[in-house]
Each structure stands twice: as C-alpha cells, then as structure tokens.
Amino acid sequence: MSRTEEFEELRPLLFSIAYRILGSVSEAEDAVQETWLRFAASTTEPRSAKAFLSTTVTRISIDVLRSARARREVYVGQWLPEPLLTDPYEDPERSAELADSLSMAVLLLLERLSPLERAVFVLREVFSFGFPEIASALGRSEAACRQLAVRARRHMDAGRPRFEADRQEREELAERFFFAVREGDVQCLRELLAADAQIVGDGGGKAPQLARVVVGADNVARLLASYLPVLAKVDVTLEPCEVNGQPGAIFRDRDGKVLNTWTLDVLDGQIQTIRSVSNPDKLGHLGPVADAWAVNREANRARRSTT
C-alpha cells in the first residue's frame, strides 16, 4: 500500500481526533492536511503509519489549540464549536459513544481541560488508544499520561452531560419540537422544554445573535414561537438533521444558503438546551452561507408590515 493510500485510509480517524481536540472543522482539516505534508516529506518509513499519523495530528492539534485559546478569550459573545453534520470515522460497535463525544455539550466541557488533558481524554476515552501510544504521541511518560487521564476524567465526570438513551424517542421529541417551532405553538413548546431550558447563540459579532443566554421554558418558548413564523415570511426554511451527533437543524434562506444551525440536548423526555451557530466563519463547510444581516432586515420589515 502506498503512503497516499495509507493516509487516505486513516484520514477519517485523523480528522475525528483533531476535531474533538479543536472543536473546529476548518482547524481540524488544516491539521490533517499538515499531517499529510509531514508524512509525505518523511524520509524514513514509519513502523506504523497509524501511530505516526495519529501522533503527528495530535501534536499539531495541541499547538493549534494553545493559540486558539487566546483568540477565544476575546471572542465576541458566546463561543460554540463549529457544527459538524457527519463524523467521517465510523465504528458500529461504539456509534452511540462516538456520537456523544461529538456533542456540543461535551466539546464545551472539553474546553475546560488543558490542551494535554484534552488530547489524552480524546485518545484514551474516545478512541481507546493504549497509554504507550498516548505517551509516544504526547512525548510524555506513561505515568504522566495516566495522571493527565485521571485529571481529565475527573473534570469530565463532574460535568458530563447525559443524553436521551433511546435514539428513537429523542428523534420523535425533536420532530414534535420542530413542528411546534414552525407553527409558533407556545403551549406545545413549553411542554417540550425543561423548566430550566436555555437557548444559546453564537454569532461571533458577524451575524445577528442573542444579547444574552435566554433561560426558562416560558421565555424560550415565546422566543422560539416568534422566530420561524417571521422568518418564514421571507422564505427561510428549517431542515431537521443530525448535528454533532444530536438532533438538530439547518436554517436556509430562499436561495438555499445556510443561515444558521441548531443543536438540541435532550434528557428525560425534554429539551434542555438549544445551541444556535450563526457565525458565518463557522458555517462555510456546510455550503454557501447566507447574508444573515440582510435576512434579518427583511424579516423585520415583514414583521412591521403585519403589525
């Protein structure tokens, strides 16, 4: 097998490692590309392509994450990970676990870890790498990596979100929720939302966004009920789909361009959190991006014309 073939076979794994460390599709893709360049330029044949490539992409991702942390400290508004529709890495026996590790709730929790803790957690808990492999990837002793794993697991367990175990029930709830959003049905939305439900928006200062996190079933229901009916007047459509391994949706303008995404956290038969990403810098990998400001202006005009 040629180097190109070896790399392409492992690309899904490499991207999935990088995305979970970085929470960014574009940065993960760049890390994978840099990994290929180093692999192609290597003058020695590694004993294991998987070990070489996973080590390289992990180290690159750690370096990128360290610089990204500084940028996120001055980010405008709430920072959320870039939405991902499909994880290229598949393992049927661990599909549920892999999906949970992709969720925005888990990715946000991973943000609390140091870059090394995050890398160890991803490699060990998500991809089941052995400690000798992890130690080699991080250039640390096995003992040090075990300590990093203990600390990371402690932090994650303390705040680890739980999700609806039954996938079908989760999807049926999401279907009812999106129907209520389309209909602007406040009462139905209240019943589907947890008492302390919240909606969080990430526009990055580059798209209309919530001024603050909206909390409470009644407040969230009223906001949602007023949202899509107005956007529908300017031909915005809601397309339910899986986002980051959880129920979600893509909103599109009349030309089919991506306006924003939603992801839903579902627990105990109710929706706990809705996360909306509208920062255009985080949507480009999903297709052509809409002018959210223009859509917002048109929607506001449509609202005024009917009041």
From TrEMBL:
GO terms for molecular function: DNA binding; sigma factor activity. InterPro entries: ECF_Sigma-70_Domain, NTF2-like_dom_sf, RNA_pol_sigma-70_dom, RNA_pol_sigma-70_ECF, RNA_pol_sigma70_r2, RNA_pol_sigma70_r4_t2, RNA_pol_sigma_r2, RNA_pol_sigma_r3/r4-like. Keywords: Sigma factor, Transcription, Transcription regulation. Residues 104-156 form the RNA polymerase sigma factor 70 region 4 type domain. One of its GO terms (biological process) is DNA-templated transcription initiation. The keyword Lipid metabolism does not apply. Residues 7-69 form the RNA polymerase sigma-70 region domain. Interacts transiently with the RNA polymerase catalytic core formed by RpoA, RpoB, RpoC and RpoZ (2 alpha, 1 beta, 1 beta' and 1 omega subunit) to form the RNA polymerase holoenzyme that can initiate transcription. NCBIfam families: PRK09636.1, sigma70-ECF, SigX4. Belongs to the sigma-70 factor family. ECF subfamily. This is RNA polymerase sigma-70 factor. It comes from Streptomyces actinomycinicus.
